Amino acid sequence: MAPEQHGGGHSGGEQLGRFLRARRTQTSPQAVGLTPGPGIRRTPGLRREELATLAGVSIDYYTRLERGKETRPSPAVVDALARALQLDDAEHQHLRELAVRAARYAPQPVPAPTRAVRSPVKLLLETVRPNPAYVLSRSMDLLAHNPGGLALYCGMDDWPATQRNLARYLFLHPTARELFPDWGNQVRGCVARLRALAGTDPDAPDLAQLVGELLLKSPDFAGLWERYEVTGRKHLTKTFLHPQVGEITLAFQGMALEGTPGHRMGVYSADPGTPDHDAMQLLDMTASQASAEHEPHPGHEPRSGHEPHPGHQPG
User: Fold this and answer.
1) Is 246 in a helix, a strand, or coil?
2) I need a surface site. Which of 12, 50, 83, 87 has the fewest CB within 10 A?
3) Contact 166/142 with Cβ under 8 angstroms?
4) How far, CA to CA in Å, does 80 sit from each of 77, 95, 231?
5) What is the pLDDT of residues 212-250, one digit of tens each?
């Protein structure tokens, strides 16, 4: 099946049905204690009637849920489906949120995206140096950063500031696969985060534009998007094979920024006295020097810092 196009007009019932179908087709009968009968199964994963039986609902009711025609499942039905599908806590919560959205008569307005970052937050980015740090929008646009926060993602500065996005970087920048030795895990978590957001805010214009672009340009993204996973492995540490400072492993901490439409700050760190900390300091120093060298000198025409590097095209 081709991945669905992402855009406006998706009802809450459709999103709920897509999530249920994706989880059903990826749950094997053996995983839930069923013994498959003889013959070839035309349906990957569980059949509709098997899931309906496990959840204690009629086949007709479940079929209407999956097709987006039943939009008011009770909390008890939602919880029963979650147990039958063996959803983890995050997936269970996502299912609840989809059910709440499906039951609304009118969608709630989506907070308008903004690239504005408050001055105190920018000051905080400088305060934590040499630790690489940045601010992301809910759709993973890079809104602000300190020198190391940008330099850590090697080649990101090739792109204009308005094109810098971690999801776009992971899937479309040629350096990303070389930078992350566990690139597969990184992109799976990235897509899961976007999928979770798309399930509850499918008409958000910033998200729709990004997902539409990646569906067209990256077969890897399209394949992961079709799986409809909403949880990924939590990356408490990340290893980079950085061309400037070599292999470096850093702890990562993400945090929500209050009073913003979903902005988050990410900060990397390493224990003082370790080779990773030394590499982190070197990265901050070299990035600061490079930034200073590109600043315009008095009496000269300022050079644009937003021109893409030759040979690299921003997705």
Assistant:
1) strand
2) 83
3) yes
4) 5, 11, 20
5) 999 999 999 999 998 888 875 566 899 999 999 999 999
C-alpha span between 31 and 297 (Å, rounded)? 65
Name 218's bridge partners: none
pLDDT digits (tens, 9 = 90+) for 185-219: 999 999 998 988 887 776 677 888 899 999 999 99
C-alpha neighbours within 13 Å on the C-beta side of residue 32: 24
Residue 240 structure tokens: 């980079």
62 Cβ contact partners less than 8 Å away, ≥ 6 residues apart: 48, 51, 52, 55
**211: number of CA atoms within 13 Å, CB side?**
30
Question: Which pLDDT value is given to residue 299?
Answer: 47
Residue 3, pLDDT score: 41
Cβ atoms 81, 55 nearer than 8 A:
yes
**Cα–Cα distance for residue pair 272/130, rounded to 1 Å:** 11
Tell me the C-alpha distance between 142 and 156, whole Å. 10
pLDDT at residue 312 in the model: 44
Q: Which amino acid is at 188?
A: R
Do the bridges between strand 264-269 and strand 133-136 make them parallel or antiparallel, or are there none, so unpaired? Answer: antiparallel
Owner of token pair 């989809």 = 98
- Where does residue 75 fall: left (phi above 0), alpha (psi -120 to 50 degrees), or beta otherwise? alpha
**pTM of the predicted structure, to 2 decimals:** 0.72
Below-70 pLDDT ranges, the chain: 1-12, 37-40, 105-112, 202-203, 232-235, 294-315
Q: Hey, is 251 helix, strand or coil?
A: strand
Helix, strand or coil for residue 237?
strand
Cα–Cα nearest to 139, from 185, 187, 206, 217: 206
Kindly report the number of other CB atoms within 10 A of residue 282's CB atom.
Answer: 17
